[in-house]
Amino acid sequence: MRVRTAASKSAKTRAAVWTAALFLPLAIAHSQGVIIPAPAHHTPLAGAFALSGTTQILVPKADADAAFAAHYLSDLWQLSNHINLSIIEKAPATPGIRFARSDGLPPEGYRLTVHPKSITVEASTGSGLFYGAMSLWQLLPAGASAAAIPAQRIDDAPRFAWRGLMLDSSRHFQSAAFVRSMIDWMARHKLNVLHWHLTDDQGWRVQIRRYPKLTSVGSWRDEHSYGGFYTQAEIKDIVSYAAERYINIVPEIDMPGHATAAIAAYPELGVGTEPLKVTSAWGVYTHLFNLEPSTFTFLDNVLDELMELFPSRYIHIGGDEAVKNEWNASPQIQARARELNIDSAGALQAYFTQRMGAYLKVHGRTLVGWDEILVPGLDKSAVVMSWRGVAGAADAARAGNDTVLSPQPMLYLDHRQSALAGEPPGRLDPSTTRGVYEFEAIDPKLDSAAVRHVLGIQANIWTEHINSEKRVEWMAWPRGTALAEVAWSKERNWPDFAQRLAGMFSRYQSLDLNYADSVFGIESRASAISGGARLTLANTNEAAGLATEIRYGIDRDPDLSTRRYLEPVDVEFGHELRAATFLAGKQVSRIWRQPVDVHTAVRHFSNDLKLCSDNVGLLLEPPDGERPIALDIMNPCWIEPRVNLTHGASIDARVAPLPFRYELVDDIKKVRYGDAKSTFGELEVHPDSCASAPIAVIPIPAPGSSELPRKRLPAMAGEHNLCLRFARPKLDPMWGLEWVEITE
Ligand code: TNX
C-alpha cells in the first residue's frame, strides 16, 4: 500500500459529506434545467418526449430560415450524439420536432415546448428559430443517442442586443477555417457580434484591392517569416457564414494609433521620416497616421472597400492608445493643427474621430470606437466601447451615446484564467470564468434613459500571447460561455451555472473543442516527508460553494471508484498521484498528475512564488517551449518566502532567456539592465529586501535555458524572505526564473 493518510477524519464528518453527495442529484432535478445561456422562463410540464435517431424534424414549406435551423440542429446532433434525424416538410405520422412561425414573439426570442407527443420550436424571426434550435440541442445529453426529454415550456429572449466576442487576428493570425469554427461556437452560445480586430502595429490582415502593399508588406513581420491575411473572397465567405448563424461581424481598422503596419506599407501615411517595419514587439507604439488630406482619402478608400465587404451597420475605427508624442513633435502636424484652429493633440484626435464618423454616416454606417473617443463634442451617433474599466460606458450612456462594455481585466480573455500551473501564456492577473460570470453590465447609478444606451457586453481575445488556434479556444471557452449567459440571461446563479457547465463540457469534448477546465482545476501543495511527499489538494476559489469532490489514484486514473480526497495524501518517491474533480458524479476536470520524486516538495516554480512587483505581469513561454514563466517584465524578480538560513542552505535554479519584445514608450527608462558583471548576467540572492547586499551572485553559464551551478548560501540567524532577481547585460533577453530549489 503506497497510500497513507496523514490524519484520520472522524467517521461522522465523512458520513456528512457522503450524505450531501447523495442528495445532490435531487437538487439538480429542481434546477433551472440544462441550457446555457439560461432561458428567461422555464416551466416544467408533466411527462417526457422520447427522442431518438428516428425522430423527424418538420419544417414549414419554403421557410429557408426554419430549414437552416433544423439542419444546423440535426448536424450538431450528428456530431455530438451520432444521431441523424431527417428533416421533412410534410407532417409525420409519428411524434416529432416541429419548427413553426409564430407572430408576436420578440425578435431573437423563441418558445420551445416539449410535450410527450411533440416538440415545438416557435419564433417570429429566423434568429429566434435558430436560438430555439440551439436550446433544443442541449436538451439531449451529449453522447446519448436517445433520451426521455422532460416535458417543459421555455419562453426565451435575450437581455442584451450586443453579445460579443472580439478576436484579434493581427497579433497572431488565425486561418479562415478557424474563424468559421469560432463563429459556430459563438452561434451555439447565442452570441451575435464578432468584433474582428483586423489591423494593428503587428499586421494588416484584410486585403484592400486599391492598396496591395497593405497586405504584401503590411501583413508580414520578422522579414516575412510570420504573417498572413484574409482575401476579400475569404472575408465575404466568412461574413455570409456568420450571417447565416445570426452573427454580425463588426470589422475594426484601428486609427490613428496602432497603425504601424499600414505606415510600413505606405510611409506617406505616417508622421516620422524614418521608414518603419511591421513591428514584432508588443505594447504601445507612438506611430500615428498623419492628418494630410491624402491620408484621409486613403482611409476613406479603405473604408469604402471595408463597407463593401461588411454589411454591418457598425464599423469600428479603434481610437485606443494613440500616444501623441509624434503628433506633438511634428512641425507638419502642428501646422495642420493651427490651420484647423485646434489647440491640443487630444482635440486633434477628436477631429480625426469626427471626420471618420461623418464619412461613415454619409454611407449609412455608425462609428464605434474605444473609450478614448469619448470627449466633449463626440457625435451622439457614435458607439463607445469601454475597455479602461467601466466608467467610459457610464459616461457615454449619460452623454446619450450608445455603449458596449468590454472592460479589462474582467472581460479581457488574454489574461490567464487561473493561477494554476498549466495555464498557457497570457497576462498574469487572472480573469476567471466566475469573474466573467459575475460581471454586472448595468451600473445601478444609471437612470433608465441612460440604461437604454447600454447595447450589451463583449469579451476581447487579444492575441499577443495566444500564438495558436488551440490556445485561442482555451482562452475563449468557457469564459465565452459565462459571457453568453451574462449577455443573454437576466438571472444569475453561479452554482446552477457551474452544474450546467459540466454538461456543456461533455458537448465541448464531443465536438473536440480545446476548452479550459480551470474552473474545476486542482491546486496542490507538497511538503517533504521521509521517502516521499505529502500532497495537499484543493479546488480553486471558483469552485467554493459547489459540491465538487476530488478523487484520486496512485499510478492509476481516478474515477468514481477511486478514493475521494479528504485529507493530504502521502506518496512515495517513484509514484504518481493522479486526481480529478467530480461534480454530481461526473468527472469535470481533466486528470491532474503529480509524479513524486526528490524535487517535488522543494522545487518552487515561478508561478508558485510571489513577484516583487506588479507592473506588467505576464506568463511567458521560453523559446525552447519549457513551461511558462510568471514575471513582471518591468522588474523580473521573485520572492522565495521564509527560508531558514540558520545552518546556511544550497540553492539550485533553472533559468530561461525570454525575448524582450515590448514597446513601453517612456516606461522603458524604469527597466534595469546593463548591470551584469559576466557575459550572460547573474542571478542575485538578496535576504529580506531586494535592496540589501546580495548573499549570492550566480553567473549564468550559457545563453539558453540552463540549470545554474549549485551555490551555498551563508548561515544567517532565522528565516528570511529571499529576493531573487537578475543582473543582465542587455535589455534583450531578460532572464526568467523557471524554478528554484533551496535545501538545507
Ligand atoms: C490594450 S484594449 C489594447 C490592445 C492590447 C491589449 C492587451 C485596447 C483597446 N488596446 O492593443 O492588445 O491592451 O490586453
Summarize the SSE layout with pairings:
Layout: E1 4-5, H1 11-29, E2 41-51, E3 56-58, H2 64-81, E4 86-88, E5 96-101, E6 110-115, E7 118-123, H3 126-139, E8 147-156, E9 162-168, H4 176-188, E10 193-197, E11 199-200, E12 203-204, H5 213-216, E13 220-221, E14 226-227, H6 232-244, E15 248-255, H7 260-265, E16 282-283, H8 293-309, E17 314-318, H9 325-329, H10 331-340, H11 345-362, E18 366-370, E19 383-386, H12 391-399, E20 403-405, E21 426-427, H13 433-437, H14 448-451, E22 454-461, H15 469-476, H16 479-488, H17 494-510, E23 522-529, E24 532-539, E25 548-554, E26 563-564, E27 569-572, E28 576-583, E29 586-587, E30 592-595, E31 603-605, E32 610-611, E33 617-620, E34 629-632, E35 637-644, E36 649-658, E37 662-663, E38 682-687, E39 696-699, E40 706-707, E41 711-713, E42 719-727, E43 734-743
Parallel strand pairs: 3-4, 3-5, 5-7, 9-10, 9-22, 10-15, 15-17, 16-37, 17-18, 18-19, 19-20, 20-22
Antiparallel strand pairs: 1-27, 2-8, 6-7, 6-8, 11-12, 13-14, 21-33, 23-24, 24-27, 25-26, 25-28, 28-29, 28-30, 31-43, 32-35, 33-34, 35-42, 36-40, 36-41, 36-43, 38-39, 38-42
Provide a quick synopsis of the model.
The chain has 744 residues and is α/β, with parallel strands linked by helices. It contains 17 helices and 43 strands.
User: How many helix segments?
Assistant: 17
- Rg calculated over all Cα atoms: 28 Å
Largest sheet: 8 strands, parallel, barrel
What ligands are attached or bound here? Answer: ligand TNX
Tell me the β content.
Answer: 25-35%
Structural category is alpha/beta
Note the overall shape: flat
- State the end-to-end CA separation: 30 Å
**How many strand segments?**
43
Q: How much helical structure, as a percent, in the residues?
A: 25-40%
Residue-averaged pLDDT, rounded? Answer: 94
The spatial strand order of the largest sheet comes to 9-10-15-17-18-19-20-22
Oligomer: single chain
